[in-house]
Amino acid sequence: QLQFVESGGGLVQPGGSLRLSCAASGFNLASYAIGWFRQAPGKEHEGISCISSNGRIIYYGDSVKGRFTISRDSAKNAVYLQMNSLKLEDTAIYYCAPLGACTATMSRSGSWGQGTQVTVSS
């Protein structure tokens, strides 16, 4: 089973920034399209961004477009999510997951990892 480890979350004030990292354990992350998802308290998982395996296709959901940037570094076997201009409503647990392809539907299957908590609060 593919294992992903998310990190970089924390407590930040509105308007602040965080960079999340998604690392792979025991396999080459570059072989997969990767999506970032989040789950706010009491809500369903929301797909917010994805990047294709070669980095040429990128998608952002409307809720994060213009504020978040997804990228990947094959040398470090990692995918990142730079989050700027954070809002209170960005508070959630953030997860990364492999996708069949990077599309607006961000279809995925399987279980979720542990995720990383992002809390935006004044």
- Overall geometry comes to globular
Number of helices: 0
Number of strands: 10
Question: What is the residue-averaged pLDDT?
Answer: 94
Helix fraction, binned, reads under 10%
Terminal CA distance reads 39 Å
Oligomerization state of this entry?
single chain
The low-pLDDT segments are none
The H/E string reads EEEEEEEEEE
**Cα Rg:** 13 Å
Structural overview:
The chain has 122 residues and is mainly beta. The protein has a 6-stranded mixed β-sheet, with no helix packed on it. The protein contains no helices and 10 strands.
Write the layout of secondary structure elements.
Layout (H helix, E strand, L loop, with lengths): L3 E4 L2 E3 L5 E7 L8 E7 L5 E7 L6 E3 L7 E6 L4 E6 L8 E8 L16 E5 L2
Parallel strand pairs: 2-10
Antiparallel strand pairs: 1-3, 3-8, 4-5, 4-9, 5-6, 7-8, 9-10
Core attributes:
0% helix, 122 residues
Quick overview:
The protein has 122 residues and is mainly beta.
